[in-house]
Sequence to fold (445 residues):
Amino acid sequence: MAMGETAILQYRGKNYELPVVVGTENEPAIDIRQLRAQSGLITLDDGYGNTGACESAITFIDGETGVLRYRGYPIEELAEKSNFIESAYLLIFGELPSAAQLKEFRKLLSDHEFIHEDLRHNFEGFPPNAHPMAILSAMINAVGCFQSQVVQPSDAESFTVAAARLMSKVRTIAAASYKKSIGRPMIYPRHDLYYTANFLHMMFSKPYQNYEPDPEVVRAMDLILLLHADHEQNCSTSTVRMVGSARANLWAAVAAGVCALWGPLHGGANQEVIEMLSQIHASGQSVESFIIKAKDKHSNTRLMGFGHRVYKNFDPRARIIKQACDAVLKKLGIHDPLLEIAKKLEETALRDPYFIERKLYPNVDFYSGIIMRAIGIPVNMFTVMFAIGRIPGWIAHWREVQTTPNARINRPRQVYQGAVQRSYVPIEQREWAAPQTLSSATASR
Ligand code: CMC
Fold:
């Protein structure tokens, strides 16, 4: 953290000098920590679009130029040369592993791949149509109940085991939730398979028939997980940090992150993209007329998989996924009409002044669903895939919060705009009508 410069804020005839903090990639930030104490002012930033909520050493994004790096390594290089587990190790522990460290971490992942037998019954409590993200979040908390040791974030050994345990069990839970949703028996993990292949085995093997994953399919799935592994202070990661700041345990914080990720404006967008493309395909609607609808503020329709709070340029993950999409579909000999529609939508949107002026480009979710469809992942599991990929990032951020010296609980302020103080009115003296929604809801019961 470089310091030195200051910014001056003038308010009601007084000057307030505020320190400027500069990050290692030269992004300057005004440190307002003492602002309220000195001036009585707080800052207002609905949606946190201009708020640095923390200092972090995990992931760097330059949204203006479309740069994404994990611990300094460009995402393009990791996508080409690394794999999900190695990149997860990098994110969680800060450095690429040595061969021995990677071997040890993989062994830990294998050692912890089972979930407690008693937990199998928990799956029975969910209705068949329960969304797998709901099951995932609930089951992460449930599995957490079986971990008696308290994770010591500053103790390397205890933390490494906790990280491996969570990463490993999450994929077992995810595959089991899928099996539950289709009414099939849960498949046990295979000790001889690496992380991603093992997950695909648990998804697609049957008690009487082993699924032998095609190496191309495993690589494509692994790439998807790697590209989702972290993305600095997005909604779900901020949730994990928020929950973790209250000193909540790793399992609880990650379960909360899963719930945040589920939202259609966040991780849920990958499911929404395929549903949008399928709908365009089934209805025969033209790409042009869909774009007109997506621009119309009254239509409640957005071009899903487009736009990003931080990227005002191409999302680098979208470029990589688009290329992989072409390659995987070609290799598997699949012609997917949804890919054609997606490409046409992209071309049309990128020529349209509405999208150009607002700097809306395809994001990571635009093409990822098409690869997952080709692999055979059902649409309602897409966001679960995102969650499995994001686990290392959440673990790294949870640990960063726990190990930051003098870290405080996250507790934003607000600008109150409600009623000013008034006196309680006894019910018989109240003259106003009950709110419409409440009375109509009661009436319809
Ligand atoms: N289609 C049509 N218009 C859009 C879109 C879109 N996909 N995205 C943004 N806009 C418009 C928006 O209506 C607004 O217009 P105006 O200035 O006229 O009111 C302007 O662009 C700015 O949008 P915003 O909603 O204020 O931007 P935001 O930074 O709050 O939201 C976003 C970012 C990702 C939620 C939004 O772009 C969106 O809803 N995209 C579609 C959902 C999606 O693909 N989400 C995945 C995000 S990437 C992965 C992840 O985070 O999980």
